Amino acid sequence: MSEQRNHRTDHGDHGDVSAAWEALVATARRTVTDGLVVGTSGNVSVRVGDLVLVTPSGVPYDRLTPDDVTGVDPDGRQVLGTLVPTSELPLHLAVYETTDATAVVHTHAVHATAVSTLVEELPLVHYMAAALGGPVRVAPYATYGSAELARNALRALDGRTGCLLRNHGTLTHGTGLDQAYDRTAQLEWMCRLWLTASSVPHLTPTLLTPDQLTEATQKLRDYGQRS
């Protein structure tokens, strides 16, 4: 335990780590405020160099302080803090090992979780699927926190920046916390949209064709302000 505390002192004064932890806590609290998680469900992480900061297990986000910074190395060995890291740590580390992501957001968003129980892939009901790399797949169910869940998620994420976890929730990643969070919010919105449209009796939602999605993908590359 003392070794972890010493390690924490070495890293905790670093401005980048402190700022990243502050941003992580703000993002975690936002998932609650926006109704994407209930209580301590879901988790958030951010990578700073070889350090991965993660939300701790079972601690309400509104109670987290700068002194609660929790971090692991790429192998999952805790090097910062004394709080136990999230139980979904294998899921987060798997994403960092196989992608260039610097942030991961996992939630139990209700509409997305509902969709995960119904289909193998979120139907192409909106062109914003392009922002996640294409049709959003559903990873087969596995026990939370398990290596099997991490493997299933990685397969569903192949070529994508977000997926659904069957009977569980969402997983998105990005080059920063804002991007990872925005992708989570977008995924939940698309799931809510499909559930709403498909619930109308005697009518079936129209879906985009692969060509239409490709066109949207190309156009989204130039979306936003140019620096």
Description:
The model is unreliable at 1-13 (pLDDT under 50). This protein is α+β, with helices and mostly antiparallel strands and 227 residues long. The chain is built from seven helices and eight strands; from the N terminus they run H-H-E-E-E-E-H-E-H-E-H-E-E-H-H. The chain is globular, with a radius of gyration of 18 Å. Strands 4-3-2-1-5-8-7-6 form an eight-stranded mixed β-sheet, with helices on both faces.
Looking at this protein, list some descriptive labels.
alpha+beta; 7 helices; single chain; 40% helix; disordered N terminus; globular
Number of helices: 7
> What is the H-and-E element order?
HHEEEEHEHEHEEHH
Radius of gyration: 18 Å
The number of E-state strands comes to 8
Instruction: Output the structural class.
Output: alpha+beta
| Spatial strand order of the main sheet | 4-3-2-1-5-8-7-6
Head-to-tail CA distance between termini: 46 Å
Given as residue ranges, the uncertain stretches (5+ residues, pLDDT < 50) are 1-13
Q: Please, what is the average pLDDT?
A: 92
Helix share bin: 40-55%
Largest sheet: 8 strands, mixed
Can you tell me the overall shape? Answer: globular
Report the portion of residues in β strands: 5-15%
Topology:
Blueprint: H1 2-12, H2 15-33, E1 43-48, E2 51-54, E3 71-72, E4 78-80, H3 89-98, E5 103-107, H4 110-116, E6 138-139, H5 147-157, E7 162-165, E8 169-174, H6 177-198, H7 210-220
Short description:
The protein is α+β, with helices and mostly antiparallel strands and 227 residues long.
